[in-house]
Amino acid sequence: MENQNRVPYRQLLAALTLLTILLSSPAPSGGRAADVTSLTGNHPPSPGAVSFHTTTLSIPTYPYADHLTTGYNPTYNMTYPILDWKSYTAASPHPTSREYELLVLENDYLRVTLLPELGGRVYQMTFKPTGHDVLYQNPVIKPTHWGPPEQGWWLAIGGIEWGLPVDEHGYEWGQPWDYQVVTSTAGVTVTLRDTDAADRLRAAVAVHLPVGRAHLTITPRLENPTGSAISYKYWANGMLAPGPANTVGPDLHFVFDAAEMSVHSTGDDRLDCHSPSPTGPDCRFSWPLYQGVDFSRLGNWRQWLGFFEYPDAGSGPIEMAGAYDTAADEGVARIFPPDLAQGSKGFAFGWSEPIDWRQWTDDGSTYVELHGGVAPTFWDTAVLPAGGALAWTEYWYPVSGIGQLNTATVEAALGAREREADGLAYILIGLHTTAPHPAGSTTLYAWSRDDCTELARWTLPAIEPGTPLSASLIAPGHALADLALAYLDDAGVLLASLNPRDCLPPRSSVAPLPMWVATTTFTVTWSGQDVWTGVASYDVQVRDGYPGTWTTWLTDTAATSAPFTGVPGHTYFFRARARDASGNQEPYGESEWGQAFTTVLTEPAPVLVTSRKSAAPRLARPHQAISYTICVSNTGNLTASVALTDTHPARLVLLTGTVAGPPGFTLDDPGGLIYWRGDVAPGEAARITYALYLTTETPIGAGLTNTVTIAGGLEGELTRRATVVRAYPVWLPLVVGGWPRSSP
């Protein structure tokens, strides 16, 4: 909201001794200026869907419309409304109720409304698990003296507005925008457009609410349909008041991924600016601490302050900015591409000596602003060539229940902070996700940044946007700045990280091979992925036959395929490992068959090498049944005539009623033998199952091995074994209490 020469507005492995995971879903509460749930015509979606409908909303509105004239900017060929302040003031204006069209988008987690009549803005973004709207809603529509100097007024309506083609909110924040709605199985998209004119800069903003996600996708598109290049400015302005009260408190914290800021406008002389409204990014201060003051916390401010990330919004592929009220335990995150949206700005009215709220509202409510622009600052401009267009996608979403906000991605937000209790220093970690994840499908890691020592690894329970996760970590000698946190899914994709350091090795695998090849030379292919720095090289090992040993074939190669020459009648198993550019090296896997295998068959033959035997459980109690499975698998190119003999150990009782298999198997009990004679076609398998019973006579602690011999393949007679152990009895004392139920 700022203007030159005007008062502007707006962190038990090794040191791990305690871990508590809490799931919480905050109870909804009200207190908002307007609540869509109370409006007539509300149509909540069915679970797992998105709904759209239109309705009306009554807002007390001052009679500014009766005192408007028209201005014209020849540079942009645009007209804009000007408020006749003298006439307006003389009329002693008072607000009266006015109906506005409201567009309502809703899924399982968010209820989003748009006001097409007032600049096509996002008006509300309500997080349904809390029931709170994180965007400010002015309870009245009241003119202010802010805005572009030539226009001389502006409406602090709230929500997220689109400002173009000049700074200080642009010209179209209060103009009607057209809209078009598209629904699909992916969600609802409302495209808002300021004009279809072909002789001026124009904008279209697509607002998309996806199915099953707790974020709002916003895609601005700026178009120049004219025959000449246009220099312009575009800034989206989010007016934020996270929590139930439709106002902000002293514990609201701005969150920027920046080390330095430049002042746009301020009344705080602690920032050493020679002017409250600098004419360029020359008045700069370190972020967040400057001369001992934490300027990220609103309660530490005196007067108003507006500031830009300096020199721009960052150089990574994705950046974030946000605000989080630690008292309300709620906030907002904005995720954007800084190569296209280079500007990131914050503003607030001050705290101990703030701008008088009467200048924009009637009820004492206040808010902060989070801006995102095409150019780095208000002093900079962007250029669209003749016939050109610029579009990008960013994401806005509510965050709650994580204590504080440190960083965010499209997938999740992370917060961490240091606390002390009972003489112990804790690190409390909070995680908010924008999508549901089943139990066991995501993992949270904590490492020492110095040497990548793993301090904790949490395989997470079921988590979704309405159930933020909290974890407590005691790691003596490790402050928050010493830790790297990473949140990944079960495919190894990095969802979010804090104080990132590449401590995870890559993942690699050998591509599947055909069960057999007809030539002695064949191609082996492998690939890998790495969370941070990418795969730098691979090692590939080979094993000749099931009883063979793993030997190195290729070392430190950047190649992802190579020809391998084998011997007819031999089966070869392959496995790979990768290392990344940071030096992290993946361990070899211990799979019985490696990652891929094939047999060299220059003449037809049956191959039974991948036949196996298994038992479960491997550690059993007396009077417990052990289930055994024998699988005879033919990976060759000729039918195998199989002869199988299985002998179970003494002191284990065969449960004859459990024996099952293909036609032709016979049972010799009490001799304890299972026989099978039969054919297995190429690419097929035969399976025999049975159970053995442990008794009190079964030895305790000794391995009990069950052996099967399988003949009929190219390899001759094969032996496969499965070993189980009778467990030692253990009596544990009953402990009542003493386990912490929550984080300190």
Structural overview:
The structure is a single chain. Strands 12, 13, 14, 15, 18, 24, 25, 29 and 30 form a nine-stranded antiparallel sheet that branches. The model is unreliable at 3-41 and 731-744 (pLDDT under 50). The chain has 744 residues and is mainly beta. The two termini are 41 Å apart. Among the domains are: 241-372, no CATH class; 411-498, Immunoglobulin-like; 507-600, Sandwich (Immunoglobulin-like); 612-726, Immunoglobulin-like (Sandwich). Helices cover 1% and strands 47% of the residues.
How much β-strand is present in the residues? Answer: over 45%
The description of the largest β-sheet is: 9 strands, antiparallel
Give the helix/strand class.
Answer: mainly beta
Number of strands: 56
The unreliable regions are: 3-41, 731-744
Cα-to-Cα separation, first versus last residue: 41 Å
Query: What's the helix count?
Result: 1
Average pLDDT, rounded to a whole number, is 90
Rg over alpha carbons: 34 Å
Overall form: elongated
Share of residues in helices: under 10%
